Amino acid sequence: MIKSLHARHHQLADQQRQREILENGIFREGRLPKFERKIAEAGHPALMPGELEIVQVNVGYMCNQVCKHCHVDAGPDRQEIMSRETMELCLNALAKNKIRTLDITGGAPEMNPHFRWFVEEAHRIGVSEIIVRSNLTIIVANPRYHDLPVFFKKHGVRVCSSLPFYNAGKTDRQRGEGVFADSIRALNMLNDVGYGRPGSGLVLDLVYNPVGAFLPGDQKQLERDFKLELKSHFGIDFNNLFTITNIPISRFLDFLLESGNYDDYMEKLVNAFNPAAVPGVMCRNTISIDWLGNLYDCDFNQMLGLGIDARVKGHVRDFDYVELKSRKIAVSQHCFACTAGAGSSCQGATA
Amino acid sequence: MEHHYYNPEDLKKFGSIAEWEGNLAKKFFDWYGDVFKEGDLTAREKSLIALAVAHTVQCPYCIDAYTQDSLEKGATEKAMMEAIHVAAAIRGGASLVHGVMMMNKAKKLSM
Fold it and tell me: Shortest Cα distance from B110 to chain A (angstroms)?
């Protein structure tokens, strides 16, 4: 298993270095327009929030996998874990502001020792929708996780899982040897308790992202292919497939630079800029919270250390819905990934 | 003239052919767009056909474009290679089937 950029003291483990790369090069030279200019031309002088619907809480960067494209640079060697106290602050913010959706992500969020308590409490206080972004393999990684499907079901969790392809070759190349087989086992276990099965009311969504420096294809067509292949070969059912464009940060940025694809990929994103995708970008209806309780416009900005508007209070203990609505969303050139083609978000295509 | 007949950057300028004949270019690009829409054939099947034809006409621009397009449409690498074998089989077969013509002629000429 490869190590995280962080453990290797790689230059891209430094958030500032990543931000420099995105601000310079082809964008500094003027060969490509910057994101801010591009959205201004599309009639958005600044990117402003809409209604806040989702609070996405990153409960830590520890993970049992080390995926080659991971924007979090997650892995077993990462020690950042959200404390129970910070989770309490998140729950207070959710309850006080009547936020509809709690979206729990990581790393592998299930590895946080307080994960189950967090889900139970969120369920108890009546959060309408609880999403857990599970990497699937964690369910079969250790006997203590085998009951996760039952736990998810008990608390009405909506499960959202990455599966970049419906065969082992592509999946394992991105996510690690054996990941596809383990993912299939985990999907079978989720199906066995009802997840993804028609009429069960238990939602199991899959996330597709390209295995390389290209854009995702049409979400509906890929969903149809995935459903056909996973059902016919493995008997697996799921609800929706969400296509997500790879964001040029962290390990995917490393891949782009190392493989000589960076300039072409950024150009592709810029050329595919779709003004119709701008209103639906997820930073307009989501707030991201890191393991320390700091607020960000999205999980990607969190990983870049691209802080929330300095005019608003930036910690979950001071979570102020009204004030947050007045903020200006922080952007850089990685944002082009969310506005390319049919758009991209944690809920899939947006345009 | 450039030092190379083919330049990857030129692919991005395909649309510029409209500069000298806009009316016909518009008809071509509209038609082209419709051709690749999903019909009885899926968009992925069409992309794989395009990839195979690209190898038959040996157009570097088309190979570049439809390698990428096939990946985006979710084709496996194996499917992409199978498509090229189909193209190669037809090319090879087209030569070989003419062997019958050669044989007919040779037999007619020979005692």
Answer: 56
One of 3.30.70.100, 1.10.10.10, 1.20.1290.10, 2.60.210.10 is the CATH number of B42-109, namely 1.20.1290.10
Kindly report, residue by residue over B62-85, the tens digit of the pLDDT. Answer: 999 999 999 999 999 999 999 999
Among partner residues A169, A214, A225, which is closest to B72 by beta-carbon distance?
Answer: A214
Would the CB atoms of A222 and B71 count as touching at under 8 Å?
no
What kind of fold does domain A11-338 have according to CATH? TIM Barrel (3.20.20)
Is the CB of residue A153 less than 8 Å away from at least one CB of chain B? no
Tokens 């939602």 — which residue? A203
User: Amino acid identity of A238?
Assistant: F
CB contact (8 A) between residue A222 and residue B74: yes
Nearest C-alpha in B relative to A215: B72
The pTM score is 0.92
> Which strands sit side by side in the sheet containing A54-58, from one edge to the other?
A241-243, A204-208, A158-162, A129-134, A101-105, A54-58, A286-289, A295-296
User: Distance, in angstroms, between A285 CA and closest chain B CA?
Assistant: 28
Which of A331, A329, A288, A327 is closest to A311 using CA atoms?
A327
- What pLDDT, in 10s, does the model give residues A127-180? 999 999 999 999 999 999 999 999 999 999 999 999 999 999 999 999 999 999
Min distance B61 CA to chain A CA atoms (Å): 15
Are the C-beta atoms of A345 and A335 separated by less than 8 Å? no
Residue of B nearest to A209 (CA): B72
Residues in chain B: 111
Among B12, B43, B68, select the one facing A221 at the smallest CB separation: B43
Q: Which of B72, B76, B77 sits opposite A217 (nearest CB)?
A: B72
What is the residue extent of each domain of chain B? Answer: 42-109
Strands (E), chain A: 54-58, 101-105, 129-134, 158-162, 204-208, 241-243, 286-289, 295-296
Chain B residues within 8 A (CB-CB) of chain A? 12, 38, 42-44, 68, 71-74, 76-77
- Residues 6 or more apart whose CB falls under 8 angstroms from that of A327 comprise A48, A49, A297, A308, A309, A311, A312
